[in-house]
């Protein structure tokens, strides 16, 4: 049964399989290499691959009755953090950074490109966002200027990063254990940056309460403090609004029912988030 244009669910004598086909074989090779090396150290938070001679296929056992993590749930939020930190800690035993198969993360270039696409699409976005369009661009440009002015050193570990820490890549399986899936965008980089990207995903589910998150997970404060101003970059807003432009009219109208209140809530909390992160950053300096 075809699930998406490149994903199938297939019944076999050995069980039900999840099959993903890659147009770019090098991405499939990267994913297989990650699983092989994680398997060699018995990393417990991934779903093992089923062996296949097809270079462009990644095959795993289908996870019945599984569901995505909910970052608004405290226990699931903490478990997703635990898994992400465990992945980063594999850099202590696997030399990810010397393996040419894994690209390096360049967060400034990624964020700047996203910001420029936002600017290019001003005429299409203004009718929806109106004056808030300029608030978003102001917040983004401010952080990018700070990043240009002060190129931060790696303050976390230069290690394997998952590359896409959205909630649905943390899968809760039938045995209630959480697994990390979909390493398509994996890169090597600073673990602090990925934790900040994870916080970008988590904070909207907890009313942008940074103090509460740091109280739950004190290590985040220690790790991310040198780059805490990166939280001021409105990453989720930029990405979601650019995604809207790819949708047809019917899909767009439906998605806007979610995105408009999401945007309003984010911008309502952003001034306080800036004040809090500026205070933390000044104390660090």
What would you say this structure looks like, in words?
- The chain is of the alpha+beta class and 285 residues long.
- 51% of the residues lie in helices and 13% in strands.
- It is built from 10 helices and 9 strands.
- It has helices spanning 25-40, 74-89, 107-120, 122-129, 132-149, 191-202, 210-216, 218-224, 235-244, 249-284; strands spanning 2-4, 7-12, 15-21, 57-61, 67-68, 158-161, 170-172, 178-180, 187-190.
- A 4-stranded antiparallel sheet has the order 1-2-3-4.
- β7 (170-172) and β8 form a beta hairpin.
- α2 runs antiparallel to α6, α3 (107-120) crosses α9 (235-244) and α9 packs antiparallel against α10.
- The protein is globular and about 60 Å long.
Question: Layout of SSEs?
Answer:
Layout: E1 2-4, E2 7-12, E3 15-21, H1 25-40, E4 57-61, E5 67-68, H2 74-89, H3 107-120, H4 122-129, H5 132-149, E6 158-161, E7 170-172, E8 178-180, E9 187-190, H6 191-202, H7 210-216, H8 218-224, H9 235-244, H10 249-284
Antiparallel strand pairs: 1-2, 2-3, 3-4, 5-7, 6-9, 7-8
Coarse shape: globular
Q: Figure out the total of helices.
A: 10
Whole-number mean pLDDT:
95
Strand order in the sheet with the most strands: 1-2-3-4
Alpha-beta content class = alpha+beta
Quickly list its features:
285 residues, alpha+beta, 4-stranded antiparallel β-sheet, 3-stranded antiparallel β-sheet, 10 helices, 9 strands, 13% strand
């Amino acid at each position: 049964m075809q699930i998406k244009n490149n994903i199938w669910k297939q019944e076999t004598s050995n069980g039900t399989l999840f099959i993903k086909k890659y147009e770019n074989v090098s991405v499939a090779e990267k994913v297989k290499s990650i699983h092989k090396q994680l398997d060699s150290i018995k990393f417990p938070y991934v779903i093992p691959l089923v062996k296949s001679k097809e270079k462009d296929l990644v095959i795993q056992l289908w996870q019945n009755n599984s569901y995505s993590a909910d970052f608004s749930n405290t226990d699931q939020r903490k478990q997703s953090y635990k898994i992400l930190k465990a992945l980063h800690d594999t850099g202590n035993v696997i030399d990810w950074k010397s393996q040419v198969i894994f690209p390096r993360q360049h967060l400034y270039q990624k964020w700047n490109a996203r910001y420029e696409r936002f600017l290019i699409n001003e005429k299409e976005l203004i009718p929806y966002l109106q004056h808030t369009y300029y608030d978003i661009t102001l917040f983004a440009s401010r952080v990018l200027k700070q990043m240009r002015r002060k190129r931060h050193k790696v303050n976390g570990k230069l290690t394997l990063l998952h590359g896409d820490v959205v909630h649905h890549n943390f899968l809760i399986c039938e045995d209630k254990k959480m697994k990390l899936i979909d390493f398509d965008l994996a890169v090597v980089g600073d673990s602090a940056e990925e934790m900040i990207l994870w916080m970008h995903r988590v904070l909207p589910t907890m009313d942008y309460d940074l103090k509460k998150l740091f109280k739950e997970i004190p290590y985040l404060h220690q790790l991310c403090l040198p780059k805490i101003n990166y939280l001021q970059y409105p990453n989720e807003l930029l990405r979601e609004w650019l995604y809207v432009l790819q949708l047809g009219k019917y899909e767009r109208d439906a998605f806007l029912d979610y995105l408009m209140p999401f945007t309003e809530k984010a911008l309502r909390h952003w001034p306080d988030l800036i004040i809090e992160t500026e205070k933390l950053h000044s104390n660090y300096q």
